[in-house]
Recover the amino acids of this structure.
């Protein structure tokens, strides 16, 4: 996407730190057979003061103590085995800016101000990346890493964006984006689905470094083949109307730069 069509800033954007805005934090709390209440309390203590509205999706029932000026609401229970966070969970957030993260200890609330800064600087969708300078991941199996790289190649070809991390679920966006979403209970990793929708609608996307820490609680059972296949299907379903011409243009440039070599296939590689 060209910078002329989607500039990094608009004249109507607020200068960082100016004006007033409200921030909602949507936390996904996945049951693991133990009481995650203590870990959740520790995480909530780290939430920046800018966040006044917290929505717990699938969290423990009952009223949780909140600091002065913060409201905490619990929605659920949800069947996380289906791989989805219901759209109602995001719609329940009341803030102008919405931050989405897991409450399993793998994502740090201390990073939230970094996300908010980029939203206030004119970006529409800010996502964490574990694979740019300053980012890191504690445990990422080789098979999942290879699958992720393959999906990134497809996403770059289809959408013309040089993303580095596709299915990491730590992200922040403007409230208006929620109204564009059409989340389906199809088992697709939510982080990848949100990114795909953001690319589909031409939002200005920024990546910020994020450190994925070891999970403190909650199950971790990545299903690389199933997740990869569903994310690929979402990428293809949401592809822009000019995606095929971009593929053709890419093959044409490759042929001009490398005369006598076979054309590239849809994945950007020579056939065979």
């Amino acid at each position: 996407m060209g910078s002329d069509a989607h500039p990094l800033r608009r004249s109507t954007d607020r200068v960082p730190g100016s004006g007033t805005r409200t921030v909602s934090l949507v936390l996904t709390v996945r049951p693991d057979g133990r009481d995650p209440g203590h870990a959740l309390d520790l995480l909530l203590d780290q939430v920046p003061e800018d966040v006044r509205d917290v929505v717990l999706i699938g969290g423990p029932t009952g009223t949780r103590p909140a600091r002065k000026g913060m409201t905490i609401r619990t929605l659920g229970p949800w069947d996380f085995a289906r791989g989805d966070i219901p759209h109602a969970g995001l719609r329940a957030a009341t803030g102008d800016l919405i931050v989405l993260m897991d409450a399993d200890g793998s994502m740090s609330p201390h990073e939230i101000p970094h996300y908010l800064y980029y939203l206030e600087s004119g970006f529409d969708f800010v996502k964490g990346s574990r694979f740019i300078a300053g980012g890191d991941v504690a445990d990422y199996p080789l098979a999942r890493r290879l699958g992720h790289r393959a999906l990134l190649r497809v996403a770059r070809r289809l959408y013309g964006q040089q993303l580095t991390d596709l299915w990491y679920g730590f992200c922040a966006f403007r409230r208006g984006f929620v109204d564009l979403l059409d989340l389906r209970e199809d088992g697709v990793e939510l982080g990848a689905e949100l990114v795909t929708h953001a690319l589909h609608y031409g939002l200005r996307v920024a990546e910020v470094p994020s450190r994925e820490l070891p999970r403190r609680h909650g199950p971790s059972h990545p299903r690389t083949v199933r997740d990869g296949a569903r994310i690929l299907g979402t990428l293809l379903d949401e592809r822009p109307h000019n995606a095929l011409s971009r593929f053709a243009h890419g093959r044409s440039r490759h042929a001009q730069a490398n005369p006598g070599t076979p054309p590239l296939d849809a994945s950007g590689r020579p056939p065979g």
Q: What stands out?
A: The longest strand covers residues 51-57. Residues 18 and 120 are 9 Å apart (CA to CA).
